[in-house]
Design goal:
By secondary structure, the protein is α+β, with helices and mostly antiparallel strands. It has one domain: HIT family, subunit A (2-Layer Sandwich), CATH 3.30.428.10. Helices cover 34% and strands 17% of the residues. It has a five-stranded antiparallel β-sheet, with helices on both faces. β1 and β2 form a beta hairpin. It is globular, with a radius of gyration of 16 Å. The N and C termini lie far apart (42 Å).
């Protein structure tokens, strides 16, 4: 039998569960390195996903707390898209993926894990990065630690 080690997951499994909006909390804290915030822009910010679909999974969110795109001003919508593009360019330079999954999940039915704060996902993809593990074992293998990918991405900013 082979073993899959993901020791960083124990903090999530045993740790206290967050209350409130982590996007709002993290964006208001001053410790960007601890929160893996990569970029702060005028109306939006970008951070690494703590529980990523793949190494380098970035989320872009407005500072405004809303789960509805219609609540965002045109400038906030434009900034969201421009920062998403900047993050895609950053990932292309830093980790050289072969493709990307980019998108929004609005509402629980659409798959939103955080329903009340609009955010975009930018997930770098490589040929063969998905295998039988998620299908059969309900396990995702992430090949690089958050702190390591955070440091790597900062080199390119």
């Amino acid at each position: 039998m082979e073993h899959l080690w993901a020791p960083w997951r124990i903090r999530y499994i045993l740790g206290p569960k967050e209350t409130g909006c982590f996007f709002c909390r993290k964006s208001q804290e001053a410790d960007d390195a601890k929160n893996h915030i990569l970029i702060r822009d005028r109306t939006c910010f970008a951070l690494l996903n703590t529980y990523p679909y793949n190494a380098g999974h970035i989320m872009v969110a407005p500072y405004k707390h809303s789960g509805d795109l219609n609540d965002l001003a045109e400038q906030e919508l434009a900034d969201l898209m421009l920062l998403m593009r900047r993050c895609q360019q950053l990932l292309a330079k830093a980790v050289k993926p072969e493709g990307f999954n980019i998108g929004l999940n609005l509402g629980r039915t659409a798959g939103a894990g955080v329903e009340d704060h609009v955010h975009m996902h930018i997930v770098p993809r490589w040929n063969g990065d998905t295998n039988y593990m998620p299908v059969l074992g309900d396990v995702r293998v992430i090949p690089q630690a958050l702190d390591e990918i955070y440091a790597e991405l900062l080199k390119y900013l």
